[in-house]
Specification:
The protein is mostly helical. It is about 55% helix and about 5% strand. The protein has a domain of about 130 residues: Citrate Synthase, domain 1 (Orthogonal Bundle), CATH 1.10.580. GO terms for molecular function: 2-methylcitrate synthase activity.
């Protein structure tokens, strides 16, 4: 029996249900990022992603997203110094990471590490904008340390020193991963990758 026959024999008029879900509902307002505004484009605070990926280090883009503007040369140097000083992991966090099995998904490891970090270094009362930016900077600086500390301990039983003297987050990540300072080309590739993944407005899967 076809759907048409069922509809004809029914005593009730059945109208197709219109999907409403989140159609036409604003999900939020943001000055950070626009996706697909004029096609297949991506902009961070008005800057085209292609220009940022080609000409900027990741720390410059992080400063743009978190602190609202591209840094000057002096501001970038100061920002790198700040982030470099935030790479260390408290002993409690390292203990938590050592308890995670090698089969853990890296995203789960980072989530767990961030939770442990938040319990060890709790947010200050007041929830100020400057405080939120400090938290973002701490996470930027320490996520590489969290992931690579777990990786080396769970796979090799090695407790690495999670602080390096590399100027960039990409260089720090690669140094911890391979145990040696990365080449400029590898570090540049990490800059580009981190810039491209830095901000995508909203998760597409949440609104489809």
């Amino acid at each position: 029996m076809s759907d048409t026959t069922i509809l004809q024999n029914s005593t009730h008029v059945i109208k197709p249900k219109k999907s409403v879900a989140l159609s036409g509902v604003p999900a939020g307002n943001t000055a950070l990022c626009t996706v697909g505004k004029s096609g297949n484009d991506l902009h961070y605070r008005g800057y085209d992603i292609l220009d940022l990926a080609e000409h900027c280090e990741f720390e410059e883009v992080a400063h743009l997203l978190i602190h609202g503007k591209l840094p000057t040369r002096d501001e970038l140097a100061a920002y790198k110094t700040k982030l470099k000083a935030l790479r260390g992991l408290p002993a409690n966090v390292r203990t938590v990471l050592e308890a995670l099995p090698a089969a853990s998904h890296p995203m789960d490891v980072m989530r767990t590490g961030v939770s442990a970090l938040g319990c060890t270094l709790p947010e200050k009362e007041g929830h100020t904008v400057s405080g939120a930016r400090d938290i973002a900077d701490k996470l930027l600086a320490s996520l590489s340390s969290i992931l690579l500390y777990w990786y080396h301990y769970s796979h090799n039983g090695e407790r690495i020193q999670p602080e390096t003297d590399d100027d960039s987050i990409g260089g720090h990540f690669l140094h911890l991963l391979h145990g040696e300072k990365p080449s400029q080309s590898w570090e540049k590739a990490m800059h580009i990758s981190l810039v491209l993944y830095a901000e995508h407005e909203f998760n597409a899967s949440t609104f489809t």
